[in-house]
Amino acid sequence: MTLFNSIQEVRAALDSKQISAVELAQDSLNKAEKLSHLNAFLQIDPELTLAQAKQADATIAKGEQGILTGLPIAHKDVFVTKGWRTTAASKMLANYVSPFDATVVEKLAQAGCVNIGKLNCDEFAMGSGNENSAFGACLNPWDTTAVPGGSSGGSAAAVAAGIVLGTTGTDTGGSVRQPSALCGVSGIKPTYGTVSRFGMVAFASSLDQAGPIARNARDLMELLNIMSGFDDKDSTSVMTCDGVKNCQQRVKNAFNHQVALFQSNGSQPLKGIRIGIPAEYFAEGIATEVKIAVEQAIAKFVELGAERVDISLPRTALAIPAYYVIAPAEASSNLSRYDGVRYGHRAQDYSGVEQMISRSRAEGFGPEVQRRILIGTYVLSQGYYDAYYLQAQRIRRMIANDFQEALNNKCDVIMGPVTPTVAKNIGDNKGDVTADWLADIYTLGVSLAGLPAMSIPCGFGGEKQNRPIGLQIIGNYFKEGQLLALSDCFQQHTDWHLRQAEVK
């Protein structure tokens, strides 16, 4: 995959017969094997992969290929995938093989993508560093002593290492944006409800949303364009997006429209775009190196014609307690199905059904998952529901209103950091189980509001200047095309997205 920097380059090579889909898939498999020490993959099955690649070559031979036909990708291990294990990086589902595909998996397969394997993540998507996986931590390709971010750490690491050009991830409180930032790649969380959640192992149902990770904004657009669309199998899926039918091509049409507008502005392509800069995102707690890199990126947008507008998101700090009440509450409900009775891990030594269930859950779930289940059960219990859960939902609405006040009246997009610091070292926060929670301060509010947001690389920090920094761009509901076009414009004038990790 080191030969190609974009999906368009892969498409050109496949269509010109410079390389076949089988050769491309084998190249990815070889690289995944060579870089197995990164622990980005939880399962690789060459037989399944090469069968898909042969089918892609047959499609190309008929001249019926699409933009993604033959493209090697990989799926976060929370998307059920027929023929592959789907473990959610948990002992609870260690040997589970789904009889059906998640809608996202199905759509990408129908588009001709070739699945290289299932990717490591935090257990049940609960974590910010990919250290909570029952199958070991994933390593950051830029610096293998650092975390890749989470929960979609394997997804970001596989792209950063050049194993594949695109992966699927999920974002509940920042789990696409944060690992993308820490691994120096691009990732987008679309508006809640625009991508089907059917077949996605649930963490927090009102927050979980699938999104792609890739090297650049145009690749994200191509992947998200296929992934998006109404799904009657998902009760949270939306039929229309601000009056436009939620279907494949919606994102691409919006992207192309916005790009055409930018091109018509000549040397100031972003003229008329107002960028909101929240004071709260640059307050105490942000590392100087992150602040400088993000400010320089914003300055580049201004140089390209955008207008900088100072705004306030006054309830930013409240996003942390609100999220860590709502998300665990929903997790407590969603994970109650894993009881050792119907499916999932079952304890070997027990007497009676009650002990079987308690021991199965104690053995099957890791410490972070158990912690969140306990918190969630507590805040939903009689006597505490009103004081905690209901209050958190009220704050959630107020946070969403803050974003709407800014995006409807003061600016077109909001920009700031994704994380307060560069990637931490693996094991740094072992003594403080909530330290990772605080690092989500810039991403949680967006998830609570259900807005689209993305991360693109904008610099490096750390002692050796080898740990990536990401810029977060937040848009109004259903404005994924605008966010991607803005990011694409930035990437046409910078080279952060072209820099590749020298994996050791």
What does the model show?
With 504 residues, the chain is α/β, with parallel strands linked by helices. The chain has a domain at 317-390. It has 16 helices and 13 strands. The protein has helices spanning 7-15, 21-34, 46-61, 103-110, 153-160, 177-183, 217-227, 250-263, 288-303, 319-334, 353-364, 367-380, 385-409, 435-438, 444-449, 480-492, and strands at residues 41-43, 72-76, 114-119, 166-171, 186-189, 209-214, 240-241, 244-245, 274-278, 307-311, 413-417, 453-461, 467-475. The strands form 2 sheets. The protein has an 11-stranded mixed β-sheet with strand order 1-3-2-4-6-5-12-13-11-9-10, with helices on both faces. Strand 12 and strand 13 form a beta hairpin. The longest helix has 25 residues, at 385-409. The radius of gyration is 21 Å and the shape is globular. The protein starts with 6 loop residues before the first helix and ends in a 12-residue tail after the last helix. The model has no long low-confidence stretch (mean pLDDT 96).
Sheet having the most strands: 11 strands, mixed
Cα end-to-end separation: 17 Å
Helix segment count? 16
Give the C-alpha Rg: 21 Å
User: Which geometry do the CA atoms define?
Assistant: globular
Compute the average pLDDT: 96
The strand line-up of the biggest sheet is 1-3-2-4-6-5-12-13-11-9-10
Poorly predicted regions: none
The class by helix and strand makeup works out as alpha/beta
Q: How would you spell out the order of helices and strands?
A: HHEHEHEHEHEEHEEHEHEHHHHEHHEEH
Give a count of the beta strands, DSSP E runs of length 2 or more: 13
Helix content range of the residues, please? 25-40%
The fraction of residues in strands falls at: 5-15%
